[in-house]
Write a structure and sequence with these properties.
about 325 residues; alpha/beta; eight-stranded mixed beta sheet; six-stranded parallel beta sheet; 10 helices; 14 strands; globular
């Protein structure tokens, strides 16, 4: 479909679906043609809000819509396997929100489906598509700070979230780890790959989901990552990667970075900032642009967010949950 506009369907109508659609409709190569929800009322309200021509009160109709090139799945992660799987079975391409699934078994099933059908599949890890994060990774890969020794990252919200909130609901994959911790874990994976050992401690809620979790990951190279996520305290959302010859700091908002500072031994600090032509770094447009680039060039997965990397992150999240004792309805521990 080289040079053609990409026709999007949006599955779910919550906050992240609205934010993504708002960014999507500003892109010249994108056209949002359909939306689906569990209720027709919700789908119609969303369609009217964004000027979307077709609204479905069930997921199956969207999955069967042959005039949709790719479906953006924005349900809670507990429903990602079912929603994305339905779309892949019907021959649709899929961009699926993170955490990609509840666990690595579900993730592997989706990847297998996509490969069997020859369909495009990508985790919506917008951080990996952020131009400044891509620049940071390139510097690290080029040896700007020498050999990576440590990674630090945190993501915490102050809350408080009531027991009825989705972030505390086990049936919706609640807890800090899958909603927030996926970012620090993915940041460490981006720079170091899959760890060889995972250690973790957590404070659990009365519902048995994690309210805050601390993680220590280690690699055969001797590198370590100290990571934290929380639903009970707002953190700086900072990140840092230290190497044998320097350090890179992201002072805040590391998952949508608009600046970072490179410190190298014997040199003045060097600040890197987002290009004005890229627009706000809090935009979700960069992942949409990457999806459309892949579809227009016939690629079935993105080199920026490769499926093997998504599976590796899910294995690490599984390992963390095993260490802290969090399981979700229908799962059998150990994962």
């Amino acid at each position: 479909m080289a040079g053609e506009r990409v026709r999007w369907g949006v599955l779910a109508t919550g906050g992240i679906a609205g934010a993504f659609t708002a960014d999507l409709i500003d892109l010249p190569d994108a056209e949002v043609v359909a939306v689906a929800s569990r209720t027709e009322e919700s789908a119609k309200a969303f369609a009217e809000r964004f000027g979307i021509p077709r609204a479905y009160g069930d997921w199956e109709s969207l999955a069967a819509d042959e005039n949709v090139d790719v479906v953006y799945v924005a349900t809670p992660h507990s429903a990602h396997r079912a929603a994305a799987g339905l779309c892949l079975e019907a021959g649709r391409n899929v961009l699926c929100e993170k955490a990609f699934t509840l666990n690595s078994r579900e993730a592997q099933e989706l990847v297998g489906l996509a490969k069997e059908r020859g369909s495009f599949l990508m985790e919506a890890m917008w951080m990996y598509c952020n131009p400044l994060i891509r620049q940071l990774k390139a510097l690290v890969d080029e040896g700007a700070i020498g050999e990576v020794r440590t990674v630090q990252a945190d993501f915490g919200l102050s809350g408080p979230f009531p027991p009825t909130h989705r972030l505390r609901d086990p049936a919706q994959g609640g807890g800090a780890l899958l909603d927030l911790g996926v970012y620090p874990v993915s940041f460490a994976h981006l720079l170091l790959g899959e760890p060889s050992e995972v250690m973790a401690r957590a404070v659990l809620s009365d519902e048995s989901v994690d309210l805050q979790t601390g993680m220590l990951l280690s690699w055969e190279s001797g590198a370590l990552a100290s990571l934290h996520c929380s639903l009970v305290g707002g953190t700086s959302t900072s990140a840092s990667v230290t190497g044998s010859e320097g350090r890179i700091d992201i002072p805040s908002g590391f998952f949508h970075a608009d600046r970072f500072v490179l410190h190298r031994d014997g040199r003045d600090p060097q600040e890197f900032t987002a290009s004005a032509t890229d627009g706000t770094q809090a935009s979700l447009k960069h992942e949409a642009i990457e999806v459309m680039r892949c579809l227009q060039t016939g690629e079935t997965e993105s080199p920026l967010v490769p499926l093997d990397g998504t599976l590796a992150v899910m294995r690490t999240l599984d390992a963390v949950r095993n260490r802290v004792g969090v399981t979700y309805p229908g799962e059998v521990a150990p994962l």
